[in-house]
Design goal:
The structure is a homodimer of 395-residue chains. Chain A is mostly helical. The first copy, chain A, folds into 2 domains: 2-136 and 162-269, no CATH class; 284-368, no CATH class. Chain A has 16 helices and 9 strands. Chains A and B meet through helix 1, helix 2, helix 4 and helix 6 of A and helix 1, helix 2, helix 4 and helix 6 of B. Chains A, B: Its cofactor is Mg(2+).
């Protein structure tokens, strides 16, 4: 308990330092050519980009300073020092630090796609090794209805490591593709972080309390520095967060999911990101034409956002394209305008889906609605995790 | 032995990957505005800057891949897994990764001086914690002649951690200020790395063999990736290495010095850097005027380098300035031209000192001479470490 209070104080300090540092360093970023123009505003000011590196660095330093405190008891008695827990924390921080480096390098250098998939995999290596050493449990508990075929648990062995590596890649990229309007990347990360913290607090009385304490040690300073970032990134954004932030956030969630053993629950908190990913698949894999940007379209007259659109040429349509369009139309998940030669549909992102359902919306309203949806999904996740899980698993 | 062979193979692969990646990524760096103009050349081409981040990343990834191999034996028997050694390696890599991030941020953003001193201190925190947990030996063995006053050993307690923190700051900055001509930063780092490796191999048969094996695990992939960097950075440089490289190198040497317990020996290998630092002190502390750059001056006609110079106005001279000038003149360590009002002396860096002793020299000759001096200092270090140390310490 004592260490959590210290952590809260440290995190509060980290919040104020981050909130102070960001405007102070903004000019340096613009001078270095790290800036963007906000496409959804009438003024075309330079907005500093990749500011996630500032909050990420403060987050890391806070965690470093916290190390001697969290292991304070162990330090009195170095014979019984919990080296394995210490190694876990170090591996987690190492993975996050790598991701911070790679995210920043990506923002500065604009790396190619293959590096974007390769790098999170590399960065998660220390994590997987520490998992292997400390747990090496590669067993899934089978839900009760399936046990007659599969038994109580299934050991998937090496595949479990593939699953964890993919989890890191998914988390880092999922946040990155549900983005584009002021405050959304940071806002959704705040909701996910809060969800994990609530889940940790509930589980603190369970037998996995150690794992959940570990998770809190990572999530609290993360949340504090992220809130400071949100303060400057909220509509109208004075800073952009960059890939840096999305990568660090994704890896932080992956670290907690893997080392605290609740990857399935974390995935439940990623429901909007999963929906957005699945909805994007036809465009990501170029089954439906994908323009370079799928941001909503800004109308200067009304100051509102409209869904952006793409055009499918009818004679280029394959069987799969037709099938996907049919399914989406049936489910009312697309806004389709057809003429003789072409089909004009909205770009398939969750943001555009909300826009076709809500009609033209102001940017701040849209971010708020999407964050409300994220909160709703967290509630769903808790329902799935608690009342429903007892039908599928022994409590 | 088996793992060293694997490490050698991995490092050879890392060498080739780094050597390939650097020219492939160079354009990305120039496009991102990360480039410099070589002041000691007649052509004014853009040379990509901060390429140390490429070799640094490959070095880190190689070390990650090596983790499961070095702990292979431990993994068979997870009950007796050496968690403390694992934590050491993780903490070392974490400090290096932090330094890579901060060095790159410095190259991109051009951070202020206070951050340059603060950041290595922060980055060395994980290192100090793991030292505290695993060793917490803060005792210096006293040389025999002093023992009648101080006893056999002195425990300096908390000061030892200050010493280690300062070591990290010193190592990172010492390489950074002995720089400015093609290949020098990387060349000196290669010589220091080789010196440490030779020292490790000599000591492998001693009772500290574990610490020296640890050191080899870090130094071999470091050396391989650094050699690949040298290939492109050697005269005429096709790439510049940036602060990134100096920071990573300094921290790598500090990690090895601290966790393998031979910080005094590592400092012996830093003799040219220490000489350069001491010689620079009057200018670094502005006792003697210090221009923004102290690079040698390039003469286009002769293609040779000359010592660059600074001017001291006589009436501004304080007592300390006069004293320093007197001592330097007495020791023949300066080239002084005096008139009525001013004194014109060479900028006080080791590079300029060599130039006033050797006369105008070509750039490649100068780098080679300075590297030869570094090798000479390594020989001196070994004489001090082995034959001489036995007079001062029990063997």
């Amino acid at each position: 308990m004592f260490e959590i209070i210290i952590l809260l104080i440290l995190s509060a300090v980290a919040y104020f330092i981050t909130a102070e540092l960001i405007p102070n360093l903004s000019d340096l970023f613009i001078k270095a050519g790290l800036f963007g123009i906000d496409l959804c505003k009438t003024n075309k000011k330079k907005v500093p980009e990749a500011i996630g590196v500032v909050s990420g660095c403060v987050f890391l330093v806070t965690s470093f300073i916290f190390i001697p405190i969290v292991f304070g008891n162990g330090l009195m008695d170095t014979q019984n020092f919990p080296h394995n827990e210490f190694a876990e924390l170090l591996a987690g921080l190492l993975s996050i630090c790598c991701m911070l480096l790679l995210g920043f390098a990506d923002d500065v250098l604009d790396l190619r796609w293959r590096y974007k998939l390769l790098l999170p995999t590399m960065a998660s290596l220390p994590l997987l090794v520490v998992y292997y050493v400390n747990f090496n449990s590669t067993t899934f508990v089978v839900p009760i209805p399936l046990r007659q075929w599969l038994g109580i648990s299934v050991n998937i062995g090496f595949l479990y490591y593939i699953y964890m590596g993919m989890l890191a890649v998914f988390c880092t990229n999922a946040i990155n593709i549900l983005a584009g309007i002021n405050g959304l990347e940071v806002g959704q990360s705040v909701v996910i972080a809060l969800s994990i913290i609530i889940f940790d607090i509930i589980e603190l009385r369970g037998d996995q309390y150690k794992a959940h304490t570990f998770s809190l040690h990572i999530m609290i300073p993360y949340l504090a520095t992220t809130l400071a970032l949100l303060k400057h990134n909220w509509y109208p954004s004075k800073v952009f967060v960059g890939d840096t932030f999305c990568y660090v956030s994704g890896m932080t969630f992956a670290v907690v999911a893997i080392l605290s053993h609740f990857s399935k629950t974390v995935l439940l908190f990623f429901l909007p990101q999963i929906i957005n990913f699945l909805y994007s698949v036809p465009q990501l894999f170029h089954i439906i034409p994908c323009p370079r940007h799928r941001l909503p379209k800004y109308s200067e007259e009304t100051d509102l956002l409209h869904a952006s659109r793409t055009i499918i040429v009818k004679k280029d349509m394959t069987f799969i394209t037709k099938l996907i369009l049919q399914v989406l139309t049936m489910l009312h998940l697309t806004d389709k305008v057809e003429d003789e030669d072409c089909i004009n549909i909205n770009n398939m992102t969750l943001i555009n889906l909300f826009l076709i359902k809500l009609g033209p919306t102001s940017e701040v309203q849209l971010t708020t609605t999407l964050m409300a949806f994220q909160v709703f999904c967290t509630c769903v996740a808790f329902v799935v995790r608690y009342p429903m899980a007892s039908y599928f698993y022994d409590s």
